[in-house]
Design brief:
The chain is of the alpha+beta class and 283 residues long. 52% of the residues lie in helices and 14% in strands. α4 runs antiparallel to α5. It starts with a helix and ends with a helix.
Length: 283
């Protein structure tokens, strides 16, 4: 992730390395520290190089093992500042749309399985270029940012190559509202619904729709993506959250599974898509 989140995680890793090298009893090698902690050596390396997020327990153990327990509050404060990282849309878009889309594409390309929930918009990996153009433009207008919309559309479409790679699986849940929201002209939404219907039965896509009439056990709100049980990307109006601590990933998986209980699939999902399409172009 080339984001503020990753930069903060890397900075914490640098601080952990400093503590290892400044032990009161003399510097420790990564292997020596791992032995003290009863960890695999790779965990020390991952934490120091910002490739894994430490837990509070990891940080306390590190401070104690390096003979510097008093630094734990500092380490915990650093962790609290970024484990639920908010990536402001305005800040992220300061350099245009392309870098923003490329950073997410990097994480998606690493994933072999993705779980998605969208309450009011078609999931990005399933969007037509025309539909994507309107969605991106609406956000640009709302936030008052400028940038090359076409670069963003191309990046989003190129990202869809993920769907055609062996061993990948995208499990998508959408509320029926996503099929009917006129964020774009009706003709564009018709084409988008046609594409969506054509994806049903594709071996890399599992598409579930929650009908308006279905009872739900949780409020259908706040779209999010879960990548390989290691990262959650959740969107709000002001920012995007990147969460990779185990507790949050587990919570979002629970939310997704709860929503799935209300979804319909295959022929029933096809019927709901067809109904939304007929409402746009009744014939």
């Amino acid at each position: 992730m080339s984001t503020d989140y990753q930069q903060a995680r890397a900075a914490l890793g640098t601080r952990l390395r400093e503590l290892r090298l400044s032990c009161p009893g003399g510097r420790l090698t990564g292997r020596q520290l791992a032995q003290r902690l009863g960890w695999q050596g790779s965990k020390v390396s991952k934490l120091e190089n910002g490739r894994q997020t430490a837990t509070p327990e990891d940080l306390r153990a590190w401070a104690d093992a390096t003979g510097q327990p008093d630094v734990y509050p500092e380490l915990a404060g650093r962790l609290a500042g970024f484990e639920s990282h908010t990536r402001s849309w305005r800040r992220a878009l300061a350099n245009g749309f392309k870098p923003l889309h490329e950073s997410l594409s990097t994480e998606i390309n690493r994933a072999s399985e993705i779980w998605v929930w969208e309450e009011a918009v078609i999931a990005g990996l399933l969007q037509t270029p025309e539909y994507a153009r309107y969605v991106i433009q609406r956000y640009a207008d709302l936030l008052g940012v400028s940038g090359n919309i076409e670069d963003a559309v191309r990046a989003r479409v190129q990202r869809q190559g993920w769907l055609y790679q062996p061993g990948r699986k995208m499990r998508v849940l959408m509320w029926e509202a996503a099929l009917r929201s006129l964020i774009c002209p009706p003709s564009v939404l018709v084409a988008q619904l046609d594409r969506l219907a054509g994806l049903i039965g594709m071996d890399t896509v599992e598409l579930g729709i929650i009908p308006f009439t279905a009872p739900v056990k949780i409020v259908p709100a706040n779209g999010f993506w879960i990548l390989d049980d290691r990262l959650v990307v959740a969107e709000d109006w002001h920012a995007e959250l990147w969460l990779d601590d185990a507790d949050n990933v587990t919570l979002y998986r629970k939310v997704w599974k709860t929503l799935r209980e209300s979804a319909v699939y295959e022929a029933e999902a096809q019927n709901i898509i067809n109904s939304a399409r007929r409402a746009l172009n009744p014939r």
